[in-house]
Amino acid sequence: MKRQILNIVNFIRGVEPRCEMDLVTPVRKQIELAKKHGLKTTFLLQYDALIDSTYTDMLFGLNDEMIEIGVWFEVVQPLCEKAGIRWEGRYPWDWHAHCGFSVGYTEAEREKLIDILFSDFRAKFGYYPRSFGAWAFDAHTLRYAADKYGLDAACNCKDQWGTDGYNMWGGYYGQGYYPSKNNVFAPAQLPDNMIGVPVFRMLGSDPILQYDLGLDVSVGASTQGVVSLEPVYTGNIGGGGVPRWVDWYLDENFSGRCLSFGYAQAGQENSFGWEKMKEGLKYQYARFEEMRDEGRLEVETLGETGCWYKQMFAETPASAIAAMDDMDGSGRRSVWYSSKNYRVNIYAEDGRFWIRDIHLFRDSYKERYLGGVCVTNNLTYDNLPFVDGYRFSGHGIRAGLYPVTDSGEDMKYSEMLYQERDGAAYVTFTGTPCGDVTFILSEGDITVRKTGERPFALRHRYDDAAADKYIEVTGISPGRISLRYNSFDYDIGIEMGELSERDIVYKEGIKLDFTI
User: Which are the contacts of 483, defined by CB distance < 8 A and separation ≥ 6?
Assistant: First the structure.
């Protein structure tokens, strides 16, 4: 049985400027819950909390085998001032990207901020932090901190579009990865380009709903809401404050359908306040203890998971998240597959199935803030799209790569099956007009096979106006599609199949190569 790992990560802010908020009670209660249920927990301190004894005194003397203390690297006014850097924020902590995150500073300034954060942490606790997190951080900062101080693990925000002003889109979807030196949001393809600290994805996204949450196909992409394991989310569609959704999520996410290991991060920052998170956290902690005692789940600190990952994997492994039904049993299904070369989402709804997303990873694709500074309120981390079911939708078109018959009909199916063989994930749809259709997801490619005789194609649907905002088709030739995104050129190989306008026609199979 592959390991099923949960990290509880609570990060601590020292100030909340948007409203009057008790920031102390959540930390105290989270410590009490960890002790009550015997659950290992990681607390990450933002600098304003690190220099406030109100918070650090609560953490002193805790069992260090159960409680890990690390750093949360959002930039705050006292950190800037100690570094001799002008603070541009509206408040002592400001969530705008140009001042609140490392990307808003020069690389020399980022190093200075890291040095002060790590040195002051050591002065307080007697050692350098080994776990490091933020909603977003850049490759230079992570590499500098890891090389100079040593890190066991890091964590960053889940995929999202526009939420809180942070675009994190097209990344390794779940679990963890070794980031590229050129783009911290992409797994490195080659060892020489790798930062040797695994980055784990936070928040426990709903693998079915979160990707295109709120999509109106007549309008297209917009700022997304959240449906994740965070206990403050209690909407009708689910979230970490809805017990029925929590049970469903834990069953699907930790089913063993994961290729390498199952993973989720739970917890909540203190700035939401105890009242909003308490019921959800209490329920979750009880479930985590129950699943741990049943042998279905291992709860460990972020740093422990990072150390294990380094021992197990010399490079980023392939992983999967397979949700074979939704919370309401309405037949929506989703398989996420990620490797060091690409990610893909295969999705089913209303008896149909299609490829909802494909993004490619390239070592030579550089993040926007490598050598540059973010001057805007928002930030963007991304990778290279081929299929984008969210951003390329609009004018009534739900973007995707759709299996169609020779008459152009979307294919219905009877049953969706998931299997793992020889390190690959097999997703099969039985009973289609073309027989059983299987997607074989391997580290460098996707192969499509069918059992029936009827002709078959994958049809790429997208709204031209929406897609043209992001991507340009620069060439189509036998065996190759050439694309340009954010001034970067890349190719997708068609090793089996034949290109015909927006169709990839089945010819003894279809094989998409993402390594050229």
Answer: 384, 386, 471, 472, 473, 474, 489, 490, 491, 492
> What span, in angstroms and rounded, lies between the C-alpha atoms of 20 and 11?
19
The span from the CA of 43 to the CA of 214, in Å, is 32
* CA distances (Å), origin 407, targets 36, 218, 413, 433, 453: 61, 26, 16, 11, 14
Structure tokens at 194: 């790798």
CA distance 181 to 185: 10
pLDDT score of 19: 79
* Domains of the chain (ranges, CATH numbers): 4-312 (3.20.20.510)
| Through-space distance between the first and last CA atoms of the chain, rounded to whole angstroms | 34
478 CA to centre of own chain: 34
Beta bridge partners of 133: 72, 155
HSE toward the beta carbon, residue 280, CA cutoff 13 A: 25
**Could you tell me which of 155, 45, 136 has the C-alpha nearest to residue 98?**
136
CB atoms within 10 A of CB 53: 10
- The first and second tokens of residue 169, run together, are 């889109």
- To 10 degrees, the CA torsion angle through 266, 250, 152, 314? -150
420-455: pLDDT as tens digits:
999 999 999 999 999 999 999 999 999 999 999 999
Annotate 32-101 with DSSP letters as a single string. Answer: HHHHHHT--EEEEE-HHHHT-HHHHHHHTTS-TTTEEEEEE---BHHHHHHHT-----SSSB---HHHHS
Answer whether 453's CB lies under 8 Å from 463's CB. Answer: no
Residues of the chain with pLDDT under 50: none
- DSSP output for 155-184: EEPPPBSSGGGEEEES---SSEEPBBSS-T
**Kind and range of the H or E element at 492?**
strand 488-496
Q: Alpha helices, DSSP H only, in 228-358?
A: 243-253, 274-293, 302-312
The single-letter DSSP state of residue 103 is G
Q: Which pLDDT belongs to residue 21? A: 87
CB 249 within 8 A of CB 206: yes
Phi-psi region of 324 (alpha: psi -120 to 50; beta: other; left: phi over 0): alpha
Residue-wise burial string across 7-38, b where 16 or more C-beta atoms lie within 10 A, e elsewhere:
bbbbbbbbbbeeeebebeebbebbbebbeebe
User: What is the residue type of 481?
Assistant: I
pLDDT tens-place string over residues 284-310: 999 999 999 999 999 999 999 999 999
Q: How far apart are CA 165 and CA 112, in angstroms?
A: 26
Q: Is 383 strand, coil or helix?
A: coil
Q: How far is CA 144 from CA 45, 107, 149, 181, in A?
A: 19, 10, 8, 11
Angle between helices 274-293 and 24-37 (to 10 degrees): 20
CB 155 within 8 A of CB 202: yes
